[in-house]
Amino acid sequence: MNSPLIARYMMTFSLLCAAFCFVTNAPAHAGDASDTVAAHLQAGEFQSALDVAKSVSDESTRASLLTQIAEQQIAHGELNASQGTLRQLPLNRSRMNLTTERARKESLNGTGADFDSLIELIQSQTSPPAQWIDIDGVGGTINEYETGVRVDPTGLLVRMTRTDETARLRELGIESRKADLNEDMAAESSLRMVSLTRLEQAVAERLSQGQPVVESMKNLAGLYQITHVFVYPETGEVVIAGPASGWEYSQQGLPTSTRNAQPTLQLDDMVTLLRTFSPTGEGIFGCSINPRQEGLRDLKEYVEQSQSRGALSPRAVGPWASMLQRKLGLQDVEIYGVPVDSRVARVIVEADFRMKLIGIGKLEGGPEVPDYFELMTQEQVAAVSSLDALRWWLSLKCEGVLKSEDNEAFEIQNSSVLCQSENQFVNADGERIQTGESEDTNRQFAANFTEHFNQLAQQDPVFADMRNIFDMALVAALIDKEHLADNANWDRGVFATNGEYQPAHYAAPLTVDSVVNHKVFNGTNIVVQVAGGVRVDAKPLVANVSTSPRLGQVADSAEPPQLPAGRWWWDAAN
């Protein structure tokens, strides 16, 4: 498919081939079918009505019956079911009106921008020869929430560039990105409280009724940072708290705060990490991007042979640089501690990959974070080998955790991300040999990345997203280590390891393009290859929690007021 579509939504386009198996029933007569469908709808038997409608051979009658079913599903709040029914209708004005109504109804339930309606608007507004597999049976698909990378069917993580097809698509994106929230949730708050226990109960109730988890739940009421954790044993509450606001959807489809454009915390990530830091979890998670030994061996031999022939001519530099990538080949992605198809895994792999690209000068890190080559002095150039093997990895940084004297209030102090470094060397067999040391240039890049991480997070949302994940990991480790769930008599319910709540699944990244680059210094080609990953071990950070008497007062001001039934968040008293 050659249609360049939807840059601003960062939605994956992929060509699909599928085999379908159809089970056909004897076609129903139109008159009988209409009466039968009406009877099923009157009884609230939507699936039975749907089965009858689908058996009608006349296309016009079938579409009319499906429209009636979708209308009733929307009216009764069966929004997920209505989505499936709508997709069986032809793309016409009736379907568009129902899709709009479904999006409006979901917004009233506390959700944000509806990507299903946006996708249908895009599909209806794009002109031939564009084809969509949902409509035409061949062509492309659109998936939600891409953030600058995609994973192809083989598991290869690759960077993407996108272009809009028309100005109309840009207009649709602008119209669809605003989250429709009530005034209370849209308001800014310096300390918004989200009761994990009440939220879990509300999610469990929706799941038991076959209802979707609404956007307000998925975005944790607009929290974009966690600064406190509270436990109220007498009411069975475990509460996370921090600054919050309303949110809107970025050009990449990421929900971001209307106050500072930072990503909101995600329920999927919180549940994933609660399961990692639990009695049955691994208590640590991360990823590693590793070059293959045979690729390193071939790269080392190629570079050494090239250097022995002297300086390259200007015309030879381009082909030579392309060969570097080909010789090294792909790097393998290893993920541990969290499901490989989780959003947490996707974010940490992408953040790690982009950090490395900044380090070797293939992505711009800004004036405060120059790449490795820019940091090199002439003396260092003379001292390095023709192939520098570097290791950079990201980990959790936190100044400390305070607690109240009664162990019911906790404050997280200045959590962030730490970049660390090591120099390695490649032997004749292509093995990377650890040295346990980091030379000045390597160490300086890591220090700059750490010091200016918040600036990087402002310009690249994946870094802010990873910082949120690190915050939630620290909270999950604290809940586990301090036995806060036990103190609140909370078994984690549907959020537990084998609980009914299922976070979204993403294509698992298995390989990435190799992170390698070169630069010519006085006729000498310096080649840099980078490995490393992300490692989050929060337990040491919560092992020594200091006591602070003032936190008791914070807990008092944050205590839940009398809330309406089903309400799971509130703003702390001023």
Short characterization:
It comes from Rubinisphaera brasiliensis (strain ATCC 49424 / DSM 5305 / JCM 21570 / IAM 15109 / NBRC 103401 / IFAM 1448) (Planctomyces brasiliensis). This protein is α+β, with helices and mostly antiparallel strands. The chain has 23 helices and 17 strands.
Give short descriptive properties of this protein.
single chain, 574 residues, alpha+beta, Serine Threonine Protein Phosphatase 5, Tetratricopeptide repeat, 15-stranded mixed beta sheet, two-stranded antiparallel sheet, DUF1598
Structural account:
- This protein is α+β, with helices and mostly antiparallel strands and 574 residues long.
- It has a domain at 7-154: Serine Threonine Protein Phosphatase 5, Tetratricopeptide repeat (Alpha Horseshoe), CATH 1.25.40.
- Helices cover 41% and strands 20% of the residues.
- The protein has helices spanning 30-42, 46-54, 59-75, 79-86, 93-108, 115-125, 133-136, 167-176, 183-186, 196-208, 215-218, 267-276, 293-308, 314-328, 343-359, 372-375, 378-383, 440-451, 453-459, 461-481, 484-487, 539-543, 551-558; strands at 149-151, 156-159, 189-195, 228-232, 237-244, 247-249, 255-257, 285-291, 330-336, 387-403, 409-426, 432-437, 511-513, 516-521, 524-536, 546-547, 569-571.
- It has a 15-stranded mixed β-sheet that branches. A two-stranded antiparallel sheet has the order 6-7.
- Strand 11 (409-426) and strand 12 form a beta hairpin.
- 43% of the residues are buried.
